Amino acid sequence: MTQPYDFDLYITASDAAYSVQARSARGGESPPQPLALPFDPARLPDKRRDVAEWIKAVRNTRLRGPEELRAARAFGTTLFDALFPAELLAAFRTGRSSLAPGERLRLRLRLPPALVMLPWELLYDQTYDQFLALASDLTLVRYPEMPAADRPSGPLRIDGPVQIVAVLASPQSDDYPPLRLDRELSRLELALKRLRDQNRVQLDVIRGPGTLDQLRERLRRPTHILHILSHGDLNRETGEGELLFEDADGAAEPINADLLRVYLERWHGQVQLVTLNACLGALPVGDDPSSSVGLALVRSGAPAVVAMQFEIMEDVAAELTRVLYAELAAGAPVDRALSEARLEIPRRHRTRLDWAIPVLFSRAETGVLIEKKSQSADVSQLWLQALDAYLTQRWEEAADLLGQVAALDPDHQDVQQRLTEARRQVGLAEFYAALCALREDDKWQAVLSGLDEWERQKPDPPDDPQGLRAWAEGRKRREERFAAALAAAERNAWAEAIPA
What we know:
This protein is of the alpha/beta class. 42% of the residues lie in helices and 19% in strands. The strands form four sheets. Strands 10, 11, 12, 13, 14, 15, 16 and 17 form an eight-stranded mixed beta sheet that branches. The radius of gyration is 25 Å and the shape is globular. Residues 280-290 have low confidence and may be disordered.
């Protein structure tokens, strides 16, 4: 596995002012530079609300570049320009340009508490027209400070499948709306179906009353990934974020990060990743940075936590889960695994911003959380299976298998080129499927504009198996004839109106 090139950005606060400093193994250490935020820090909650509204608005648009997407780019640009003054930007560009094939630059943000609330995942490099979180040669990690003695010791070596334990809790309470746990579980099981069929992961589910007792019992057996879906809330006395499990009667039982950490540590530190699909998982509430459960877990010694900084749609959460866990099961570093998971969103939904919702907190030194003991022997067999799927144009299967090969051996033959093409073909197929769905709503204008974009992306003659273009052009001609008939009728030109 190619080692990452770490580029650390230290942001420090002093007398209500901020400075930023870069450190890297290749570029050394730069002197601190002033960091001028593009807005008053007191307006951070307002900015977060703006971003949340952009994400929601973009979900309701299809096949066009909405204003909200442009607003997100503008916000990300101002954040990027503030974070990278001239000297740091030069070092950053030099670092990226020096990457060897298959190597990645890992941008590690070391943030002061007051700036944890910022959605750094929207950093946008206007020069290259690119959100950093979607770059193929770069990953983004929030890297909390913690005592050296508490840092993870290295990847966990396992035999057999990755053990995933899903904790689903929706307590009976007038204060919290019920979560649709059955639907969430169905989505999770569907997302992991192929991995389970291949015996690469095993899924156990905890739900119902006595959540913590069930988890305590399950943690006696190996647990590598803990996936939690629940409500979150703020403890008004301590200022801490809490997860709301169910007690023995099904009522709300608040669980803070310290208690959860004790349970995770009790059985030999097997848990390598905690995924929090819960409110307050990623970011603090109000002005208190300690209210972030995800951040608290990493500071307590968890190797990595993926948490959500805004409300995430169920379909997006399921897709992120599928790719994230597939990459981890193949031995990919957690930052690269999440990067691949993010990239699935724009491939499937061209204008969506949901890829910016997950936040990765990690102190894993190389990013590798799980390592299969027999991993090296699997590459050749996986490559043969991937090649067969690729040559027979089973694109989704090919993309999955090639992704596994790339995670194990990024330099293996032409795996990167084939993986890019397989994913492109999957994206085109899903784009076409979205156009078919638009036909069901009789949106022929959107279908026509979408087909134009779809055909521009296909170098070979486009195959339109559902006859979408013929249908949409027929609808267009009908609308034009009807408009001509109405215009003639308004002029009392009935000889023209009746034939039209």
